[in-house]
Specification:
Strand content: 15-25%
CATH class: Alpha Beta
Strand order of the largest sheet: 2-1-3-4-5
Number of domains: 1
CATH superfamily: Cytidine Deaminase, domain 2
Radius of gyration: 21 Å
Helix content: 10-25%
Distance between the termini: 39 Å
Shape: elongated
């Protein structure tokens, strides 16, 4: 393994007058007013998967798969709602990097993962099981706990916690 030295990074010593440029990343926060009823989401404390299902049951009518992350504070109140992915009829692409990038910016203590199955059947696929396991493991490393993953179908839902799968 090659170690980095001044010479390998900037060239032979003594360094002539060279300009070194680095990218600086600054988080940008934006508050959007979606509608006047937004208060029913922000600061609301959900106490059960059924509460979440009832609030987000509108996803059952979508023709595409939506994967959302509810960012929660230390008292399980929503501080942010992040749309991670909008997919096709039966799949959406979800990567841990995208899930936890925004959760760190929002200072979330925990996440509730949420997605719909446009087919109406909330039974988890093998991909659902796999990504839930990966996100739980990544969350443990990042210090952001994944407390549930809820799949919404037609007038039904499936909670990983209620089924003892998380």
């Amino acid at each position: 393994m090659k170690t980095n030295t001044v010479e390998t990074l900037f060239g032979p010593w003594p360094i002539e007058r060279r300009r070194v440029r680095f990218r600086v990343i600054r988080p940008v926060f934006e508050t959007l007013t979606i509608n006047d009823l937004a208060e029913e989401y922000t600061g609301k404390r959900f106490t059960s998967p059924r509460d979440i299902f009832e609030k987000f049951s509108y996803l059952a009518n979508e023709s595409k798969e939506y994967f959302l992350a509810l960012h929660l504070d230390g008292k399980n109140r929503i501080v942010c709602l992040d749309t991670i992915s909008v997919g096709s009829l039966n799949q959406s692409i979800v990567h841990p990097r995208e899930v936890f990038k925004s959760s760190l910016l929002s200072s979330a203590a925990a996440l509730v993962l949420l997605h719909n199955h446009p087919t109406g059947d909330p039974t988890p696929s093998s991909e659902d099981l796999s990504i839930t396991r990966r996100l739980k493991e990544a969350g443990e490393l990042m210090g952001v706990k994944v407390i549930d993953h809820i799949i919404i179908g037609n007038e039904a839902y499936m909670s990983f916690v209620e089924q003892g799968m998380l």
